[in-house]
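Quick question, first post here. What does this chain look like in 3D?
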Amino acid sequence: MKNLQINYIHLDETPSTNSHLATIADEARHGTVVYTDRQTAGRGQRGNSWESEPGKNVTMSVLLRDTGVAPARQFLLSEACALAIVDTMRHYIGETTIKWPNDIYYGDCKLCGILIEHALAGSRIKHTIVGIGLNVNQRKFLSDAPNPISMYQIAGSETPVRQIVEQIAERLLSLVASLPDDADAMHERFKRALYRSTGLHEYIANVRSTARIGAETLLPGQHFHASIIDVEPSGTILLRTATATHAFAFKEISFVI
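> Answer (accepted):
Ran it through. Tokens below.
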């Protein structure tokens, strides 16, 4: 990162850091970060909610401009964000993984969720807003989320939230600055960091109708075993079963954990 001055905006409370940043995105500069102590209407992928005890966790959004990433390769920005969190967490709790498409896992538990929203202008990305919800100091989770975990529960000690906000923002902007030149190397790192990146694992088909995989037919709700081959620039995942390789878009499959 060359002489980038990050503009931090702290809010005591807001419905959504992504929504707040979107309202000022036309005037805000690249690297603007909005973070809050209490997010009252936080969103995850496909409208999922995110539980966060006030003042205990990272709830932040980062504005990215002029990244040089084409709309057809926009998933690179998701890869950069996920890797920024993995790199930051290594200093605190050791190895974490990226559960496709962009959750951060410690073991089989969810540590962090990411919501990325792009604004397009013709054939380019006008700007990108990266929303991050990371469990830092929360000791108990009360929602029906199946597998949350926090840094505190892993390490047994608290970490200053602002410190994590700054480190993630700095690492993210550094990785984004390397694009698109380092896109291939970043993608290889992303693949190596994927949750269950090797071996056969169990999945559930969430397709609305039957899907063909070679000679196989997947029915909605059907369990099947496959290994991860790659993630395409669009973000679709390539899974290989015993007989064929097939691409799945977001929400078309679920991991069996």
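The CA atoms of residues 228 and 242 lie 12 Å apart.
The chain is about 20% helix and 35% strand.
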